[in-house]
Structures are given as structure tokens and as C-alpha cells.
């Protein structure tokens, strides 16, 4: 790798804006071309963000300067598009999830390994100063030995703001696959591999109605649980409980709490790159009603940017010969956990998670996305 590393996009939907804004601010990478099924949309995004070329997905794969492909296509074709990029000799950064089944995604990772190429997978929010500061506090022993985690993401569902929300209730989506990767990736980053899971799911309704936009009032089917509760057992001994719901009138998102022998730690919203980190200590003894617990605030350390941080870490890791944080291995394990939870919700049984992941590397405090390092 030599700077700047050439990057091409396949898929330029809504999320491409934040990727382009951030990647264009990183000196170590340069976006060279955007590709999409809708070439006119690719051209419009290229003009908006100052990218020199636009065209089809094949144009991106054929571009001689592109070393890394950013895959922002729909989840149903993530594995297929990523495999095409690997076949073209390009490293891949893909939006979550890595794929929708174990077979195609494990084949993708094997293909990349054989080709000597890297695969990175969102979410890369775990590289942000929020989660990384919390991870350092746990490693320092601030809350003693971690015992269990609680997470929650609940609100009444995306149909209240999204003009075309049907795909978020289709197979391969729902709150588990749409938002689960943020919470599960954070827990795996902190605790390590999941050993087994149990889950219970439900559908509030078999059909839902669009609330906003030109299609307001139209209904669509609900193919997957719209609420799911997941119990995770980690290889290192910790447990976790996670609620993911599109059915709750009470909105409560970004809840991640880690409870240990010497304290409880609040971790920032895993859908964000920064946030509050604080902890409480156990009471020594109580004579009367419990007093208010004192929150001890932890200063956040690191430079805050946004999506694209995982890709930057990957290209720097290639140059430095080290593992990258948001790896394909991590993305596959989180996918395996979600598929196992889906199976458990359908069968009512605990399901063993067959995959595991190496210890997820920490991000150094002095990691500066805005520096030129290559």
C-alpha cells in the first residue's frame, strides 16, 4: 500500500454520503470512481463529492487504480458483489451484514485468503473513541471482572419515518439483522467469541402500513420477528441480554451496560462513534434506603470521525502487516450469532455458535484518521 490508496464504490445509496464525506477527509485514501446500477445516480454523487469518475459496477472492478472496493449494495447481494471484487484482485470493505448465509460468506473469506486479499465489514463504530475508551477502561480493571452485559434498541419501527420500509421487515432484515450488528459487534469486541445463544421472537402484526411519503397507507408483509430478545453466552464466561424491537411505543436506543465485580460501566451508543462513558461503584453497606449512586465520568480519548474509519484501519493494517479491527472474520462471527439467534427463536432451543473470532484488536489512543501515514 502506498498513499493515497485508490478506492471505488459499488452502490451509492443514502449511506454513501457519509462514507464519501469521511473518506475524502482521510489523506491515506482517495476515492477514484463510483459505480451503481443507476449510472446517473453514480454520476450525480460523483459530482456532489468531487469524485473524478462514475459508471457501472464493472467499471469500478476494471479501474486500474482501485485497490479497495467499498460495497454498499443491498444485503442480499453483499457476498456476491464482494466475491466479484476479490476475483478482480481488490480488497473489500462491505456494509453489514457480511452476507445472509454461512455458505456464501465463508466461501468469500476463503476466496480472499487464497488470493491474499483483505475483507473488512461494518459496523466500524467499534473503532470510534466511544467504544474504544470503554474498552480500555475494562482492560484496566475499572469495573473488575466483567460478568454480564445488557443492551437495548427499541422503538415503534422504521415505517414512521422511512418512505419505503418494507425491506426492513423482509427475510435477512428485521431489528436483528438491521441493528443487531452494532450491539453484537460491540459485545464481541469487548468479551470475545459467543459460544451459544437462545432467543425469543414475535411479530406484533403480520402486515404493517407505511406512515410517511407518497406511499403512505400502503401495507407490506412482515416476514421476520419484529421484536427479538437474545441471550448470549460468551466463551470467556460472560453473558449478555439484548432486546431489539420495532414494536415499542417507548423509544430507548443505544443502551449498552457492562456489569462487573467492581462496578458497572455505561458504553456509548454502538451506532455512533462517540458518546458518554461513565461507571458506578458498588455500595459498601447500606443502613437505610439506597442513596443516589455517584456516576464517575470517563473522558473520551481519540479523534472522532465517522463511517469509513474501518476501511482506513484496514489499509493501514495491510501496510503495517497487522490484523485490522473490523475484519471479515469478526463480521462472519456476528452473522453466525445472528443466524443462530434466528434459529433459536424458531425452535425454542439453545443453539451453539460454530464459529469463533480471534481477539479483536484495540485501537491505539494516538490513531489519527486525519494524519498522512502511508
UniProtKB/TrEMBL annotation:
Gene3D superfamilies: Dihydrodipicolinate Reductase, domain 2 (3.30.360.10), NAD(P)-binding Rossmann-like Domain (3.40.50.720). Keywords: NAD, Oxidoreductase. Signal peptide: none annotated. Residues 131-266 form the GFO/IDH/MocA-like oxidoreductase domain. InterPro entries: Gfo/Idh/MocA-like_OxRdtase_N, Gfo/Idh/MocA_oxidrdct_glycsds, GFO_IDH_MocA-like_dom, NAD(P)-bd_dom_sf. Pfam families: GFO_IDH_MocA (PF01408), GFO_IDH_MocA_C3 (PF22725). Residues 6-120 form the Gfo/Idh/MocA-like oxidoreductase N-terminal domain. GO terms for molecular function: nucleotide binding; oxidoreductase activity. This is Oxidoreductase. It comes from Brachybacterium phenoliresistens.
Amino acid at each position: 500500500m502506498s498513499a493515497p490508496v485508490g478506492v471505488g464504490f459499488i452502490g451509492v445509496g443514502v449511506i454513501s454520503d457519509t462514507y464519501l464525506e469521511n473518506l475524502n477527509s482521510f489523506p491515506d485514501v482517495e476515492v477514484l470512481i463510483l459505480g451503481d446500477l443507476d449510472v446517473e445516480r453514480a454520476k450525480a454523487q460523483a459530482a456532489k463529492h468531487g469524485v473524478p469518475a462514475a459508471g457501472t459496477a464493472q467499471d469500478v472492478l476494471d479501474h486500474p487504480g482501485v485497490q479497495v472496493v467499498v460495497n454498499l449494495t443491498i444485503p442480499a447481494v453483499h457476498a456476491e458483489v464482494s466475491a466479484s471484487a476479490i476475483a478482480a484482485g481488490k480488497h473489500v470493505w462491505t456494509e453489514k451484514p457480511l452476507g445472509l448465509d454461512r455458505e456464501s460468506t465463508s466461501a468469500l473469506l476463503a476466496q480472499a485468503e487464497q488470493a491474499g486479499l483483505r475483507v473488512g465489514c461494518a459496523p466500524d463504530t467499534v473503532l470510534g473513541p466511544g467504544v474504544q475508551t470503554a474498552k480500555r477502561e475494562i482492560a484496566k480493571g475499572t469495573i473488575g471482572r466483567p460478568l454480564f452485559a445488557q443492551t437495548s434498541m427499541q422503538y415503534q419501527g422504521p415505517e414512521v419515518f422511512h418512505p419505503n420500509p418494507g425491506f426492513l421487515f423482509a427475510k435477512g432484515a428485521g431489528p436483528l439483522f438491521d441493528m443487531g450488528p452494532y450491539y453484537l459487534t460491540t459485545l464481541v469486541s469487548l468479551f470475545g467469541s459467543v459460544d451459544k445463544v437462545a432467543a425469543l421472537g414475535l411479530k406484533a402484526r403480520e402486515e404493517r402500513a407505511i406512515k410517511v411519503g407518497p406511499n403512505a397507507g400502503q401495507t407490506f408483509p412482515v416476514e421476520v420477528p419484529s421484536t427479538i430478545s437474545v441471550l448470549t453466552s460468551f466463551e470467556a464466561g460472560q453473558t449478555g441480554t439484548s432486546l431489539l424491537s420495532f414494536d415499542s411505543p417507548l423509544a430507548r436506543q443505544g443502551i449498552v451496560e457492562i456489569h462487573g465485580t467492581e462496578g458497572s460501566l455505561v458504553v456509548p451508543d454502538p451506532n455512533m462513534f462517540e458518546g458518554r462513558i461513565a461507571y458506578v461503584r458498588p455500595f459498601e453497606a447500606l443502613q437505610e434506603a439506597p442513596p443516589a449512586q455517584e456516576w464517575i465520568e470517563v473522558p473520551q480519548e481519540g479523534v472522532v470521525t465517522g463511517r469509513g474509519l474501518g476501511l482506513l484501519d484496514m489499509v493501514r493494517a495491510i501496510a503495517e502487516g497487522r490484523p485490522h479491527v473490523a475484519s471479515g472474520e469478526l463480521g462472519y462471527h456476528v452473522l453466525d450469532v445472528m443466524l443462530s439467534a434466528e434459529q433459536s427463536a424458531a425452535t425454542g432451543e439453545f443453539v451453539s455458535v460454530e464459529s469463533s473470532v480471534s481477539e479483536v484488536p484495540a485501537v491505539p489512543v494516538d490513531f489519527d484518521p486525519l494524519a498522512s501515514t502511508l
